[in-house]
């Protein structure tokens, strides 16, 4: 049995990553006050933000080629083959070899252009999936 890998030791590759952005805004329930005043004048911590006054949301993930650590140098190849599956992973000089980040072959590309193109494909697919999800949850009267 000969096990082959897409990339070899020393190859330089472009990695794409899925990033989510943390967005903080005023709590809409207490309008950023942190407390709710009852009819008798008593104040209680806002039940939505628990007095924190703000809420944190995560923007949808988006695939991109990171500016830093976008180019990696293959330092270790790991191919795991079973009857049912095949897994190809890499460790790179920039992110640690032996201990460090394991990268999937699916996120590596030979050129920056190919990496950017794949990001566009994955982001387009995600927005289509998100629209499907939204339209599926609309309740018809
Ligand atoms: Zn609140």
Explain briefly what this protein structure is.
Helices cover 18% and strands 34% of the residues. The chain is α+β, with helices and mostly antiparallel strands.
Task: Write out key terms for the chains shown.
single chain, 141 residues, alpha+beta, 2 domains, five-stranded antiparallel β-sheet, two-stranded antiparallel sheet, binds zinc ion
Give a structural overview.
This protein is an alpha+beta fold and 141 residues long. It has two domains: 12-20 and 62-137; 23-58, no CATH class. The protein has one helix and eleven strands, in the order βββββββββββα. The protein has one helix at 112-137, and strands at residues 12-15, 17-19, 22-26, 35-37, 43-45, 54-58, 62-64, 71-81, 86-92, 103-104, 108-109. The strands form four sheets. A five-stranded antiparallel β-sheet has the order 10-9-8-1-11. A two-stranded antiparallel ribbon has the order 2-7. A hairpin with a 5-residue loop joins strand 4 and strand 5. The longest helix has 26 residues, at 112-137. The model has no long low-confidence stretch (mean pLDDT 88). It binds zinc ion.
